[in-house]
Sequence to fold (220 residues):
Amino acid sequence: MAYQHAYDSASGELKGVCAAFPAGAEHSAPTQEEAWQAAGWTVAPGPSTDAAGQPVGPDSHNYLGGALAAKRAVTLTPDKTQIVADGADQAVVAVAVAGADPPASLTLLVNGAQEAVALSGGAGALAPIVAQTPCTIAVSLLDSITYRAAPVVIQAV
Amino acid sequence: MPSLNASAQAQGKDKTRVEKQAGRLVASDPTSPQAVLAALEAAQNWDQGKEALKQIFNALLAD
Fold:
């Protein structure tokens, strides 16, 4: 089966992957490819799995540089996922970027607030997180096109 | 019908604010029962209490 990829050529973000609509087949509604083109995205044939056998999708791949590539894996590891909301108990999220030539820093989103993390050899740590009231704190990557990481949630109780 | 506390806690999940203070990321939810009580306790008079209540309800209703 042939597949089509849609991506934003400006940002390199992979927007979607779908089975190619059979050429010449009649249709009354716009095909997925036509809808993507109408949205201004580049549509091109592509594989459903990459060279490593991993499924291709917006969460795992990008078109940075104009070619399909796997997003760089980042690991966010909290030392605890629950803290006491007393302004003193704290959680530290370790950051690790896989692969050679890691960046010198990475920007994370902590409940929407940007926080830069300095990396040394691909490893670093987010500033300690404390809470003054019970709340939920979500930590994720700002650049979700280049990198991929499972988000971290810390519960303050 | 959920209690006011339960509603506030449920809505508060999306209202967490994070600020950098002394090298730490300090999170707080201005609509949490603790923050509400602290704001009311900090009020020195009725007008301040009324203003605190207004801010609390605005935060609860804002989305």
